[in-house]
Design a protein that fits this description.
mainly alpha; Arc Repressor Mutant, subunit A; 65% helix; 3-stranded antiparallel sheet; DNA-binding; 181 residues; homodimer
Chain lengths: 181, 181
Amino acid sequence: MALEHAILVSLDERSGSGYELAQRFEKSIGFFWAATHQQIYRTLKRMVGLGWVSCHEVAQDGRPDKKVYEVAEAGREELARWLAAPGEPETIRHDLSVKVRGASSGDAKALIGEVARHRDLHAERLDVYLAIEKKDFPDPSALSGRPLHQYLVLRGGIRAERALVEWCDEVLAAMREDDRR
Amino acid sequence: MALEHAILVSLDERSGSGYELAQRFEKSIGFFWAATHQQIYRTLKRMVGLGWVSCHEVAQDGRPDKKVYEVAEAGREELARWLAAPGEPETIRHDLSVKVRGASSGDAKALIGEVARHRDLHAERLDVYLAIEKKDFPDPSALSGRPLHQYLVLRGGIRAERALVEWCDEVLAAMREDDRR
DNA sequence: GGGTGCAGTGCAACTAGTTGCATAGCCCTA
DNA sequence: TAGGGCTATGCAACTAGTTGCACTGCACCC
């Protein structure tokens, strides 16, 4: 599983609490690896047991105490091992494709609405990604090391969302045309 | 969950046994919804309980008996309901992106090899999809109804794999360039 | 007659992910 | 001062998915 590794990557960029990690998973990291705070807390606990991360409590004023985690030596080794290890492409689970494939078994009109809704959601996400690209990476050719890698992952998100928007448009055009006939 | 619905879609196209379904999930349906035979057998059992599918045993000669499942009335209703119901875009879990993002924490060279391997895997899949497109859908503009929907899903697969291949190429070019400097 | 391989079904144990809820301190506003 | 919202952590119960194995039957080939 890669949640542990996603957490290692995130903590290696910057140490933080479970809560902070959960927020990162809501935005940047979560663009390509989703996780709830429950999963994160549970996994952090396990990782402490494995010796991959260390944890110390930090008292704060004005807000509750927090536990700050940082990557330990064993965690760094595990991360390096995992990075070099071959992995299989993710198993795909795409709801909307199942629905499109099943369209003939239901109300095609209602499905058109659903596809249009997804189209807009993906277009929105695409806009978010493009805005980040513009703001944080104005000159990609100058990038190197960690910022380059972050940029490349963002590029993956942009490509994926764009492909989805275009696919939805293709589906909508074809199904509307088919509906008219 | 959508495995039940993926099975309904598949059985609605053609009734069959768990074993046959597992094979369909290996190829066509599995391109966008992965499932093992274990999951399928277990889910079929549950669906019989729900009254969504009916099951009858068929004796065969030359091979073991099988249980053939077909969609029942309640299953058809459920499928129609689900098709029209709004759903959220899938939560993304993309291993390779996590690795790329973590590249600075390990051996970037080894990761280049891994990205190249994935690039080839996706290129292979893309070729498979393109071959199916050419063979089964030589004249897309003439399509309507079920074949159209199947074609559109295939188009989604083509777009997704192409986007992945192109992204891998972008990553490889940038990381190799960065490595040279 | 023994091995391989495919068709066919399934259990058991495990790992991973989701959902609902609980708790607790502090801030701000109506 | 009561309620809503944010930070912060966590349990319990559930659903979903994976992995390893076990069994049957037949066909085919060496």
